[in-house]
Amino acid sequence: MPAKSEKQARLFRLVRALQKGGIKSKEVSPQVRKMARTIKPSSVKHFVKLKEILKSLNEAEYSLSDFDIIKGKSFNQVLKENEGIPFTKKEMLTFQSKQAGFSGFGKTNFIPNPPENTKIETEIFSNGSTKKYVFKKLIDQKNENLIVYACFIQRSYPDKPDKEIFSMLSTALDKNKDSEQTKTLSDFIDRINSYGL
Fold first, then answer.
1. Same domain, 85 and 136
2. Per residue in 12-62, pLDDT tens?
3. Partner of 155 for a Cys bridge, out of 50, 117, 164, 182, CB 3.0 to 4.6 A?
4. Does 117 map to a domain?
């Protein structure tokens, strides 16, 4: 039986990775460790399937090709070139509500940069890599009345000197519609989370 949601599939992918030795037990939550001990690998395998899950989703929207790979620049340089505007209180609460399940590794801390609150970041250690996520809200380059959410990701491995840098933008939306912004931001965070970079 396939997973009923992307979140459930991510959880079972972690369980499967732990069972196969792809990740260390200290990198996952106690819940994942318990599941790995008590559920048969053959049963877990059924829940990691994505084909059935993605039928209801727009596949182009959930494709790694949506990420831009950035080369020839440092992560700090990329962040400086993309000057953010402050997140609202509602947007900050959206990040707070997503902390419990981001990346499937138990609680993640999204850290704002007070007092400006123009970026929110988190760092995750998994599968032998370190991933730094930085979210920003930007003025759309084509229309100053629109905003986009951006996520910049730096992935590094201890045995590789080079760091990989990725970026992704949300769809553009009216900067005066708060309710539309928080829904789009929530979907964008889930979307980034679903890739499991």
1. yes
2. 777 887 887 777 777 777 888 888 888 888 777 777 664 443 333 333 343
3. 164
4. yes
